[in-house]
Amino acid sequence: MWMAALADGSGAVFVPVLPVELPADRSGLLVRPAGPVAAHSPLSVLEQNAAAVVGDPADLHFIAAERSSLTRVGLGLVASSAVAVSVVVLCPVGVSAQRSALALAVGDVLYARTGRPAVMCEVMPRMVSGPGATGHPVLVRDAAGAVTAALVWQVVPWAPVRGWLDRLAGSG
Prior knowledge:
Blueprint: E1 2-6, E2 13-15, E3 28-33, H1 42-54, E4 61-64, H2 70-79, E5 85-91, H3 97-114, E6 118-121, E7 132-141, E8 147-156, H4 158-169
Parallel strand pairs: 5-6
Antiparallel strand pairs: 1-2, 1-7, 3-4, 3-5, 6-8, 7-8
């Protein structure tokens, strides 16, 4: 376990070890529900299909998905009215469990601040036309007290990005 905070000093959180094991040979999504998962909800069904991959993850679910669809599926989950999630972390094959835990912790901070679900990734996510990504600088303090800088990515749908750009240009 280590400590992390957004680079502006806010949102300090402990970053625990992930309670699930990320498969070394499969990409997927780590999903934190925004509340209890109903027995027959879409997330419950997806989790049952993925249970053999990760075991019993308590409030964290790993859903296997093709790398090419991670961004689309992650944004779809947070936009869905059928599934209430707080954070989705994109996990391409080979991602670090520690950095994925950091992305999850930053997503938790963003969700607590805004009340809106966050789609996060430890690496610059693979993008297709439509969504954008913004980097969140993070300071990480390890058990020995050493501080390092990291960047955690948040995927955002294109519509809010377009509105933000229009406001910057003075046309919105």
